[in-house]
Fold these 3 entries.
Entry 1:
Amino acid sequence: MKARFQVGDAVRVADRWPEAGPARCHVRTPHFLRGRSGTVERVLGEFPNAEELAFGKPGLPKVPLYTIKFRETELWADGGFRLQDTLTADLYEHWLEGTHG
Amino acid sequence: MHDLGGVEPLASAAIDRREHALTQFDKHVDALMYLLSHPSRRILRVDELRRAIESLSPDAYANLSYYEKWLQAMRDLLVEKAVLGADEIESKLAELRARDRAAALPLPGAGVP
């Protein structure tokens, strides 16, 4: 699967909560990043989907994985962070949406 | 019970940076996981282990040690994947406990002056 995003692209993490549904699931996207916007810091390559590996499935086709950088001030209301403080997380492509503007 | 970023009261708790020596139990559990996940067998994968650890009850998650969580998760996965039966594990445990109790009894005549 070809990587859809490149370094510097603005992306938004899907505001999805599959763990709240009835089906068993396993996700690798921290709750505090859902619905938040960041930028692509690195394109890491493609990897078997850990959400399926977690249930003993092969996790194919492989999914592109990215390091996404967020401003701490975008994530926490009152953490005492400065504007230049950032947090990075490795996220699978199917959790990312492109943003416009 | 695992996705704890920013969750109080952990959000502001200090991180314990001391080194912890591994116990014999810890090493046994680590070795078991190595054997179960070895490519020649691939009975369990680390991704499954992580999912099973994350599925522990909040009480178990808070109170078990790191490797106790591994062991409970390995047990749950082996039962889920029908590699071992829950009854099978229980009866083996009962057998081992009985053996240990027997071994702890003083030998006949021991301690007699």
Entry 2:
Amino acid sequence: MSKKILIIEDEDEFFFFYTMMFEGTDYIVNRALDGKQAFEKIKEDKPDLLILDLLLDEMTGDTFLKQLKSDPSYASIPIIIASSFSPRSYKTIFEIDPALIFLEKPFTQERLLASIKARLG
Amino acid sequence: MSKINLKGNNPWNLLFYRMNTAIKQILQKYLIQHNIFLKILRKFRILPYKSIRTKIILSSILLAVFPIFIMTVFIYPTEKKALQDALIQNLEGVGHKQTELILRWIEERKADARIIAENPNVPGVIYKSEGSENFYRLLHHLNTLREAYGYKEIFIYDRHGDLKITTSTGTVITNVAGFEFFQKAVSGITFVSTIAPSVIPLENEYGKLELGLPTLYISTPVIYEHKVIGMVCLRVDVMEISKLMRSVRLGETGETYLINKDGFMISESKYLKDLKDIGLVQQRTTLELQVINPKTGQLTKGAEECIKGKKGHDGEEYVDYRGIQVLGFWQWIPELDWGVIAEIDVKEGYGPVKRLHTIVAPIIFLVTIAVISSAFFFGKKMSDPILYLTEITKSISEGDYSKRIKITSRDEIGELSHSFNKMASFLEEKTQILRNYTTNLERTVEERTKDLVRMNQELEKQSSNLEKAYKELLTLDQMKDKMIRDVSHELKSPVAQVQMAIDLWSKEVKKEHIDRSKEEKFSKIINDSLQRLRKTIGSILDLSVLESGRLVFRKEPIHMDVLVLQTVTGMRLLAEKKGLALINHVNQGLPAVIGDKEEIQRVITNLIDNAIKYTEKGEIHVFLEQKDACIEFAVKDTGSGIGLPKEQFGKLFERFFQERPRVDGAGVGLAICKNIIEVHKGHLWVESEGRGKGSTFKFTLPVA
């Protein structure tokens, strides 16, 4: 069964890069533009993995994360953070989800896929 | 209290006397009780009323009453005893004297008898008896003697007891051989008989013949030629003895009397009349009255003891034959077988003392009353100032400093009052000063309080301002963080895009089958990113330059209408690309403004650019017109509007504030625009009905 990945990313350019990087993989990729949309999509079709950009406008990334974690049905979804910020400036994020992987932009396809594999097994 | 008349035995006197005693006793008792009561009170501090007045009064009373108490308890008995002793001594003296008197008298009578017996005529009479010359001579002699010496009768008997010669003219006993006085005489003794009732009627003191009249015989033998040839007998006037006894005065009530061994009086009682009145005796007390206690019927103490042959006294009072308390002395005369009793009424004996007490007791009572009254009076007098002082002091202690003490005596109380008044005046003065001060203080406090309240209010205002400022600061801080994040993101993101694009393209290029469409895409991305970067960097730089004031604005006349039209034309394409109509309503021939054309254009461009950015569909209208002394520029769009409350519109122009998610540019634009306009002495603001209702950005520039 192909894994479903939901990418929450508001910049189109990056999404283009994602699609490029996911070419040739059998991951099913979906996109949400912001936290609200993300929740809708998660409810619709629970993904196996979330790739989350931190700086969203309506709901910042860590708020979204907290909300996600507070909902038991979705708390278990593994998460990758993809952000142009360095993990150093977002140490608190690890308190919310110690298991998450922080992917700093720019990243290579290899890095991406390796992270996904690490999270999904 | 009337004075007691101790003359006689008036029962009224007795009553008064009793009353006096009683009152005195009650008084004594009361006083004693009072003292004890007080002492108890003192001891247990039960005095109900601890006032200095009470103390003064009670101590005065105690002081006055105590000596009286002492006197009553100690002196009176002693005095009584002393008096008793004196009285007894007196009685004794009298008793002795009487005894001596009686004895001497008897001796005299005996001597008389002997003298008669020795009369030379006597033998002749005895032998010859009546009719002889001797007889009448002797008789005459005897009568003379009788009259001279007061004998009742004189008798001469022969040795057979026959009467030879007598002075009596009445009934006589012709033969006395059986009588003791005869027998004793002829035996050679000069004999004194007992006082006994006569066996023949004899004339009594009232001139009446009485059988059983008390008689006393003195007999003595007649001795002739060494033989007892007869006896001389004198009938003594018993009353003479009474006279003797009565010759010694023993006060008013006192008397001495004789008694025989049966306890009968053999002299006359002083109170014969009274005794007769009450029927105790008929004629006389001699041999009629037995000396017995009328109540008990027993011999009185004096009589009883006396008869026993004792000599003694009783100072403790016993009841005499009249039933009256007497002090008595008694002595038995064994020679005569008579008792001498000297008695004096207790009343009289202790009379003086009791009289004194009767006088003294009311005096003491009055004195006590006087003392108590004085004690009250003086106590009051002394304590009144103190109490008065206390009262005034109290009212002063309660705050009324106006009171003064009106005591002007020159003693310590007066001094105290004077000092006190001074102190009160002082207090009053100082209190007034204090009051004034306090009033001032109060006023001052009030004012200060008002000030403080005002200050407080201001402070509160300031505090709320501060809070607001703080909140703003926080917000600003947050905004600053956000800005930093935003800026950082705005810088990093395009760089990352470029990087990733190049990476992916390099990868793609290494593939066998190169997808050229991607090349275009990547190339676009790279370019756009770089442009974005440039813009961002430019904006940041611009702003910092603006802020540091380094940017130099040119000053030249600008024709806004021309400038706006130019800019609008240049941006029409951009709008149409998004499907938006860009309509201008630019008035012509407007006066010029002074400023930096480039910068103004930047503002116009930015505003129109924003309108395009934030409008998805509809129209954008550009206005330019003159309003008073200004040229007003407006860009109206039908876009997303401002989703902020009207008061917060100003925030839009704050640096790095982006009301909507960043759509190209770092949000720095509006702040820069505002800065530029303000430097040109204009105003930049926004109008909007709310979210989704479009917005109109306007600015004004003063006409040159």
Entry 3:
Amino acid sequence: MSKVRVLVGTRKGAFILNSDGKREKWDVSGPHFAGWEIYHMKGSQVDPNRIFASQTSGWFGQIIQRSDDGGKTWHQPGTPPGESSTTPEGMPRSESNKFAYDATPETGKPLTTHQWYDGTQHPWEFKRVWHIEPSLTDADTVYAGVEDAAIFRSTDGGKSWKELPGLRGHGTGPKWQPGAGGMCLHTIILDPKNKDRMYIAISAAGAFRTDDGGTTWTPINRGLRSQYIPDPNAEVGHCVHHVTMHPSRPDVLFMQKHWDVMRSDDAGDSWREVSGNLPTDFGFVIDVHAHEPETIYVVPIKSDSEHYPPDGKLRVYRSKSGGNEWEALTKGLPQSNCYVNVLRDAMAVDRMDKCGVYFGTTGGQVYASADAGDSWAPIVRDLPAVLSVEVQTLD
Amino acid sequence: MATVRVALPQHLRTLAHVSGEVSVEIEGPVTQRSVLDAVEARYPMLRGTIREHGTLQRRAFLRFFACEEDLSHESPDAPLPEAVANGKEPFLVIGAIAGG
């Protein structure tokens, strides 16, 4: 029987939740990296026991951790093949926490500032890794989306990182600006049918696509409308919160924007709103059912200044028609006095026959549904605030 | 050759796999730069956690104390107090209360 491994990043450490295919009884391990913010963890599809983690701190900066045994042990990658994994003093070698923007004249030079909160220009400053996306075909290749917004790639298992500067050098950077959480590149989607195509999203710049493996990038924001920028229909400046895709249909994208739930059927070339009958179309997460490409999930949040569910009721909304028509899923979720948030990377699905859906809250609960959202139960309910949730389905 | 004691915050001790103070050997002048260079050489996993990569600027939420003095804003090449250079007092890397 298949197994499920849920990777949970929180404000004060990482937790790993394991269950068999029934998804009724859970083994909880953690906190790993206790006391640190774990913005994201994600496992490789090529080698599911290889998991990357972004460990970060306002005090001490960025650390990349890697496990090669499914999360039992961790190390900072950085040992060349054939060399000792420790220094002569017995310490691990590592420079895997170095994220340096490309400042070469050929690539990095054209763009050095972005818009600050007050509208002035501000230099790019690295703060943290928000999202890690392992390659679909190579266990040693992995991408990192960072704040201030840029994308980095490692081809040595996370030991060293190089920026793909064509994104930051696109030319629109002076119009990018930080959202409330900072100017973060939070979404990276790899096209399983086209190795050269990749999507990313930035708060607040918008979504971008590359069709040449990350060398050049195109803004894909036509159809988005945002009242908080001078031109609501501008090419960039939109606060995209999350984007998702079903691997069987990589040209179909679903987006939770600051406000508005959007859909594209042409790889992001154009978008249309599918908020439909949602009680509010503000929110952070959005995800797609593992086996039904038209079934999508969101968690409506009251507003941009009230980051909690409307009416104190935690409700996942599901659309089986790719948007517009939504149903509230409430069974097992608190329906009174609930004022938690669900952050943008804190929802995921498994690939079991009966698709499991998972999400974590800023109140420290991780809810799971083993029946595609019809009913829910907490796996854990008292973790630190949950920043991210990823799921691995293991054979 | 001077032996300098360095006290690290708990999270950095965890990263470096040490449980107490660390000691580093310094040839030449004992300064913030020479001490931190030696710490990073011995514990490479700490590169970027005390000083920024590239610029080697002190991270904003870290402070450097010694001998009951705040040395955070001293030149990185200024000599550290004699008591640090001769190992009587540790060089303290402290996480600012406001950080994180």
